[in-house]
Specification:
Elements lengths: L25 H4 L1 E3 L2 E3 L2 H12 L5 E9 L4 E8 L5 E2 L6 E2 L1 E14 L2 E14 L3 E4 L13 H11 L4 H8 L3 H17 L8 E10 L3 E8 L5 E6 L4 H10 L11 E4 L3 H10 L4 E4 L1 H21 L7 H5 L8 H13 L1 H19 L2 H13 L3 H12 L1 H10 L4 H16 L6 H12 L10
Helix pairs in contact: 3-5, 5-16, 6-7, 8-11, 8-13, 10-11, 11-12, 11-14, 12-13, 15-16
Length: 441
């Protein structure tokens, strides 16, 4: 056998059938039979062994390209007489028999690559006949480890449907890979340092289908997501904490909205935690109160065309035309001006004031003769401690709202998820801060 020349990079893609760095006669040695190209055993198979990183004990026995299907097939085999470890006890045992398996690997030269091997079953004196594992794939997977790593990488950037089209695979096979690794990585998360949490609900699909998300207020990582938006969701989170090295008693603060169910669940499951009502939800209630005043004017026959977006929100978020309309409506309708002043004053009080300022605002709202703001005043008084907690800590659910936006974008991109399990996989994958190195093979 003539020695190989020093290795250099390929001059052409595989379709050109010419490789630099191997036998000059390689292109002349290609055997063409029935639309297939069989590669020379010594040169090509050694290349694939190096690329696959098979390690000792395994080698590429044969390689073949189906030109019409643009598919590369590699047959692997183990050295005769090899011993393999028992998957239960780890003792090395002789081979009892073999089972043929197939795996999808990353493409070689844009050719779909499939591996074939007869996987040995060992005969253990203690545990009987069991199938051993192979170094290039985890047990039960139809993909190699390198292929699964690429699937995980792509899933963080695009929908599973798009990945399936790109890889020419069924989405069900991809979901099984993601389900395994995401659940393994999530189960390995340590929550022992979680002290403050954020809670909020988000839509999972069309109709009244919701999930409640729990986030670490310090790391901004999504901890847990569970179907529903009632107090049972907090019980589910408290139970999940025990599986991650933590317990409900370590939670000191909970940032959430004024949901009756959330409040009841928080008091029941986290009695030591201080409840903080998010500024965004308080101002959302103030916005609804302002909108109620505007609608009352419309029902009375006032022409309020263009008033919706001119009146809603803060002045610094409106464009010049909206600001002009806003000032016109306030000037022409004093009752609307009073409502706008109440809303803007509440925002200033929440961010810059203290308990005395909040009492002053509630007194003004009680005397303003606007029922929607009188109702808002009663709501704030009923949740007084949680509102004051925000004014003292200035902690908000802004990070949670950002995550909810990411999840809603993922839902629209995927055109919805078949079930909640898929929604949860994507949620943890995109916002859970998972470390896939902790996933056990």
């Amino acid at each position: 056998m003539r020695p190989q020349t020093p290795h250099r990079s390929p001059r052409q893609a595989f379709g050109g059938t010419i490789f630099e760095g191997f036998e000059p006669s390689l292109s002349r040695c290609l055997l063409k039979r029935e639309g297939k190209v069989q590669l020379p055993l010594m040169d090509a198979n050694k290349l694939f062994e190096i690329a696959l990183g098979l390690g000792s004990g395994w080698k590429v026995e044969n390689s073949e390209i189906e030109m019409d299907a643009s598919t590369l097939k590699l047959w692997l085999r183990f050295q005769p007489g090899s011993l393999f470890s028992c998957p239960t006890c780890g003792e090395y045992c002789p081979v009892h028999d073999t089972v043929e398996k197939r795996w999808r690997h990353m493409d070689f030269w844009q050719h779909r690559t499939e591996l074939f091997a007869r996987v040995p079953r060992v005969k253990c004196d203690e545990h009987g006949v069991l199938q051993t594992s192979v170094p290039w794939a985890r047990p039960g997977s139809g993909f190699t480890l390198m292929m699964e790593a690429m699937i995980l990488l792509l899933a963080q950037q695009m929908s599973v449907t798009a990945i399936a089209r790109r890889l020419n695979e069924t989405d069900m096979r991809l979901w099984r890979v993601l389900d395994y690794y995401v659940n393994q990585a999530h189960a390995a998360k340590d929550w022992s340092q979680v002290k403050r949490i954020m809670i909020d609900e988000t839509s999972t699909k069309k109709g009244h289908h919701y999930a409640t998300n729990f986030m670490d207020a310090d790391t901004k990582e999504l901890l847990f997501t569970v179907p529903g938006k009632d107090k049972k969701t907090l019980a589910s989170f408290a139970k999940e904490m025990l599986l991650h090295g933590s317990h409900p008693g370590q939670i000191t603060e909970i940032i959430m909205d004024m949901s009756v169910s959330f409040i009841a669940g928080a008091k029941e499951q986290f009695p030591l935690a201080r409840i903080i009502f998010d500024h965004f939800h308080i101002m959302q209630l103030a916005g609804k109160a302002l909108d109620a005043v505007r609608k009352e004017l419309v029902r009375s026959g006032v022409d309020m065309k263009g008033s919706i977006w001119a009146i809603r929100g803060n002045e610094w978020t409106r464009n010049d035309a909206q600001l002009k309309d806003r000032r016109k409506f306030i000037l022409n309708y004093p009752v609307l001006g009073r409502a706008v002043s109440l809303r803007e004053s509440l925002q200033d009080v929440l961010w810059e004031g203290g308990e005395g300022d909040l009492k002053w605002w509630c007194g003004w709202a009680d005397r303003c003769r606007l029922e929607s703001f009188r109702k808002l005043s009663r709501t704030l008084k009923a949740h007084w401690d949680g509102v004051l907690a925000f004014m003292e800590t200035r902690m908000t659910n802004a990070a949670m709202e950002a995550v909810n936006g990411i999840l809603q974008l993922a839902k629209r991109t995927a055109r919805g998820f078949r079930n909640f399990k898929y929604f949860r996989i994507v949620a943890y994958l995109k916002a859970g801060g998972l470390d896939f190195n902790q996933a056990s093979i």
